[in-house]
Every structure is written in C-alpha cells, then in structure tokens.
Amino acid sequence: MSRLLTPGFILGLSLILLSACGGGGDSGTPVATPANEPTPTTPPPASTKDNYTLYIQQDLLTITKSPDTNNGATTLEVWGFSDTETSSTENKIIPGTTIYAEEGKTVTVSVKNNLNTIHDFNFVTLPTDEITSSTNKPIEVSETITFTITPKKSGIYLYEDSLNNGVNRSLGLFGVMIVRPATELGNLVWPGGPGFNKEVLWVISDMDYPNWNQVAINNGADKVDTTKYKANYFLMNGMNGFQAMSDDLNTNITGNVGETILVRIANAGQYSQSLHFHGSHFQVISRNGNRLNEFVYQDTINMKPKETAMVLYTIDQVGHYPMHVHTAQLETGKGVYLNGTAAMIIGK
Amino acid sequence: MNYGIVKSTIITTVTLISIVVTQSPSYAEKVVPIVDLTTGALSMSVTSITKNMSDNNEALEFWVFCPGGSGGGMGGGGMCNSPTLPSPTLTLTPNTAADVTLNMMMAPQEDGSITMGNSSFSNPYIGHTIHLHGLDMETQYDGVPETFQAEPVNNESSVDLRNGFTYKINSDSNNIRVDERYIGSHMYHCHVHTVKHLEMGMYGGFVVKGSGNKANWINNSGGSFDEEWIMMLSTVDPTYHSTAAQGDSDIFADYNPKYFLVNGEEGNGITINPLLSKTIILAQGQTKNVVIRLMGMHSTNAIFSIMSGSNKIPFTLYNIDGFALKTPSTETSVELSPGQTKDVMITLDKAITYNPQIAFTDLRNNKEFNVKYSDSKVVSSIVKTELIVTQN
C-alpha cells in the first residue's frame, strides 16, 4: 500500500473534491443525528440523468499482479450490465452502470440483452410500486425492455440478474442505483438526516471462477452445480485489491481531518464479507434501506450477500490506513495476499 | 508491567474461561495470562506451540505472542513465559500511557524465500507486527507494514516494522487515542500476511477498563458488572498451518475450517468441554452481573446465544467494537463477524446452569458446519460452554 503514494493520488483527491458530493432530502422518518454532524461544505451533486441504457454483455476483467510478489495477474471472463456495447479494456463492466436518481423524479432504464441466453433485471429491495414492468420478466436474446423507476426514498439499491440461482449475478450481472434527495437540500444523507462532505461507493463481490464462471460460459449457467461454491476472487468495485487501493478517484476514502465521508456499500457476492476500517470508528446509519433510529459506532461491519448499508466515516487524524475484509481468506485473489477486498483511507 | 495466571474473580482483572471460583473440582481450568499495561512497559515475543486437535490427535503448530522472553523458534517455547492460545489479554485504563515492544528474536515466521510453480521469490511476509485492533492508532503505531512507511515519524522511515517495534499507546503527545470512549473490548493481532498469521493464532484480547469508580463499568456510561468472561472466537483449517501455506499460495484461496475454537479450545461438538465451564457462587438473595466479552478472530460467521435447556435467555448488548451503544438493547442472540467485538451482560439471580454458545456458520448461507473426521464421525461447529450458578 505504501507504493500507492503516487502523484496520481493528488490528482485523484482533487477529482474527488470536484465530483463526490451527496444530496439530501426525502419524506423518510426523521432520525437522531450524530453529535458530530458535519456542516456540508461542498456544493450539491450535478443533476442526474433521466435515461440509462444497460447492455448485458460478456467481457474480460483484468486482475493485476501483486507489486510485492509479482503474482496474481490474469484475465477473467465475466458478464455485466455495461453502458456500452463495445468491449472495455478499463474494467468498467463490473459493477454494472451505476444509476443515479433523485427522490420523486422518474428515471428510465432500458436493458438490452446482448448474450445468447435469457436474462433479467431485478432490484433486490426497491418497492414494487416504484418501478413499472415486472422486474422478474425475462429479457429474451436481443430484446430490450425499458423500466420506469420513480424512487421515493434516498439510499442505495442493489440490482441484479436474478436467474440461475445466483449464477448470473456471480458472473457480474449486478449494479446499484443511488437515490439522492432533492439537490436543493445540499449534502444531507436524507431530509433531517446527517450531513456529509464527500461520498464513495463500494460494491463488493466474489467469484468461484473455475466452477461457476467457466462452467457457465462454456456450458451454460444452468449447468453450474450451485450446491457448491468456493470463491477464489474477491472484488472491490470490480477491481482486485491492488487496483482498488490505487483508485483514489472512486474507491478510496480521502479527505482532510474533520471531513465526513458517506460510504455506500453493497455486497453483490455470495459470501458475507466483514469489512474492517482502520484509523477511526464509523457510524452505521442505515442497513438494507432501513434508517437506524440510533447510529452505531463500529470499526467492522458484516455485509451478507445482497445486503446494503450506509456508514459515515469522519477523518479525525492524518495518516494512511487500510480498509480490508477481516474474513482473512477474502483478502486474497486466488491466494495472492492483498489482492482481495480492500481500499485505502487517507487523512490529510 | 504485571502478568501472571489469574484464577480469581477480582473484577479489576480479566480472566479467561474458565474462572472456576470453587466447589467444582471435576472441572479443569483454562486460564490465560492477564497483562495489566498500566503498571509499566511490556515486552512480548513470539513462540510456537503445538496443539493436538480432536481428530485423531492431529498435531498443529500455532504461533502466539508471549510476555517476556526472547522468542522460541524451532518449535520450542524458548524463554517465553507459559505461552497460551489465545495470547495474553492486555488491559489498560483510558488516557494511561503504555509501551508494548515486540521482540522478534528467534520468532517463528514464514520462510524468506518461497517457491511457487517453477520460480522462487523473496517472501515479503516475513516478520510480525502488533495491530491494536479497534484502538484507532495513528499510522506509525497501527502495526500495518504496508502503510507504516507512508507516514514516517521521528525519522523512522528506515525501520522495518516487521523486525520488532515499540508501540506507544497514549505515550506520544500526538497519540492520545485511548480515552473513555474506548472502555470496552478490543483485540490485538499480527498484521503481517494476516490470511496466514491470524490462522496461526497470533491474536489476543485487549480490554480498556474504566478507572476509579468506573473500574467495573462495561462502558463509560455505566453497566456495572461483577464477573467477566471472555470468549475469543477462532477457526482452524489445518492446511493453512502446513509449511506449504506461505507467501502467495492457492491454499489461501480454499478455506475449509475444521476446528472451531473458543479461547483456543474446541467445543467437542455439542458436548461441554470442561475447560469451557465457569462456576459462579451466589449468596442467598444475591444477584450478579456477568459481562461476556465476545471477540472475533475467526474466519466464518458466528451467532452467540445463551441457552438454558431449550430456552433462549435474554441478555443485554452494551458495546459493539468496544464503543457503547447509546441505548443498550435486549437480545436473545447476536451475530459476531470476523474482526468484531461485542460486550453483553446477563444478570444471574438463581441457581441454574446456562449454556452460552457459539454457532460458527458458513459465509454463504449462514448455516452451521458439520465436519467429517477421519473416522467418519461428523462434528458440529457449535461450541457450547457452561455457566454454572450455585447458591451457598
């Protein structure tokens, strides 16, 4: 991790300052606010798009080597909800395109199936009256289905391809929708809720590459023996550990002492992952869309499969700290240490 | 610094399973050293121990921290003082300065060169550190070799943390971290190649205790206790303990937990391991509050509950990760994930036997394991302990 101290970090931090802002406001239940609630200091987020198109694609995912041992570099065949029909060389296929929406406003999501088997598009926790069309409706080969979504409540929502008993999701067919309050409310997590200065998104996942990915791609997802699952890759935002820890733009928690970072977390994998933050305790403010009446200080949060959470991390000391999964074997990528679920926390 | 075997129920010390007060001669005792850091600096070394596990006496090597001594490589105890699994529990009061020095002399560790396939490479995961888990130490004292060099302090950029280091708690003017907020249960462990070194047993409890009239408070807001019971959870995959499991290895991509430990002891399936039994004496009309400190150094999910017969006994959850809940909650079970601590309290008011238990569960479906032994016996991953309350 020390090798991550590159000029790129400085650039990344600058870009985060420009890009990562929250929204705030909905009709949710008011909850207690923490004593150290920060004063929002950054402008509200840029307006969200009204229309998204997602392409169900197959692509390659690059796993980079450990700079400490030179082990672990490989390429994995995966599926994903891509925002482009062309192949990406920048590991953009996992997680799927992030949908940004605003409370009470309608966004349309068109999903086109470019694979040769049936797939679907399904939200794990979004109330059914907030989306038109059945999200469990199969999307035939080459078919496009358009969904109209009018979310009512700020938060993070996991979407997936729910077919084949988790196999399709495990190969990469997942993503999240982030719903923000109206922009005029500034950086509040929700109306009457706590404020924050910046935000990051962590979508974690895992893969049993030989027994699920390769079988599904070579023989069909319905041929996977789903009674067995031995994940050997653990990804943060679709990246192996060393990539993620270098991603100051979208993954790492960076900021000045006193700033509070909203971390939105979704586990799209098959395994629970117990995430441990160094440097400071954080406050858990919501779990699976449920806003907590009392925020809880923790330094570790267990994310079970398909769970979501939002936490607030206030940087209270200068330094470099890891965030890593404490379920130790999940810290690896096919046995290569630190190439599993990880990120950095950098206080300035 | 003061360490030694503690058998009493004195509330100002932390005693591991089991604190058998008296009148239970049929039960052996499992006690782990308590090190009170408020009395001075501590030097710790690393040694290896061998444990015979329940499947056909399978012998496994563990690495543990031990107070004093100069390490004990080559499978021996060296000059360590009574090494135990888990390592000694450290205690400290808020805002009290303490230095903990890791002495690496003769410490067992990974090999310096690793062969993987047809090539060999220098193993970056040699040496050991101490990470004070939950104390939010600054980078310099966080025990993470990969970040240590990022924040050189006191011109120590040339220091290799893994060769031994002095960790200053509250003793550096820039490093006053452990204040009253931290009254509760934390842990410490080696942060080198944790996928290997945690499995090898390099962990112990770290309890921040109140001082003065808060000496027996469960956190800074209150919750007075009379007795303490620490439960350190860990899991063991024997393959991870082999010499082949070093550096980067496919072994670490395939975790198969076989033994499920509380305080380094197996639960023997659903029978009671006599080392996991504790007896508490109540005077007539007396009640006692027992804090159970749950510490997670395992690599699975886990569920804690307190049974009495077939009934789940309610208890109160006070702390998560060593920090107080604003409102303690009444529970009949709590989950404990790897890296978490939770402090719960139960009030004893009658002479019955309770069974605090841990169900270790898998990461995918949160279901208990059933492990098949070499003689085809199937063993459950539930570790049941015993809290015997008697009245005199």
Describe this structure in words.
The complex is a heterodimer of chains A (348) and B (392). In chain A, 9% of the residues lie in helices and 36% in strands. With 348 residues, chain A is mainly beta. In chain A, strand 19 and strand 20 form a beta hairpin. Chain B is mostly beta strands. The longest helix of chain B has 4 residues. Chain B folds into two domains: 209 residues, Sandwich (Immunoglobulin-like), CATH 2.60.40; 161 residues, Immunoglobulin-like, CATH 2.60.40.420. In chain B, the strands form seven sheets. Chain B has a seven-stranded mixed beta sheet with strand order 17-16-15-19-25-22-23, with no helix packed on it. Chain B is globular and about 65 Å long. Chain B is 2% helix and 42% strand. The N terminus of chain B is likely disordered. Chains A and B meet through strand 13, strand 15, strand 16, strand 18 and strand 20 of A and helix 1 and strand 23 of B.
Placed side by side, the strands forming the largest sheet of chain B appear as 17-16-15-19-25-22-23
Q: How far apart lie the N and C ends of chain B?
A: 36 Å
Subunit organisation of the chains: heterodimer
In the CATH hierarchy, the third-tier topology of the largest domain in chain B is known as Immunoglobulin-like
How much β-strand is present in the residues of chain A? 35-45%
Please trace the helix and strand order of chain A, writing H or E for each element: HEEEEEEEHEEHEHEEEEEEEEEEE
Look at the structure and give the mean pLDDT of chain B: 87
What is the 3D form of chain A?
globular
Biggest sheet details of chain B: 7 strands, mixed
Fill in the keyword field for this structure.
heterodimer, A: 348 residues, mainly beta, six-stranded mixed β-sheet, five-stranded mixed β-sheet, 4 helices, 36% strand, globular, disordered N terminus, B: mainly beta, Immunoglobulin-like
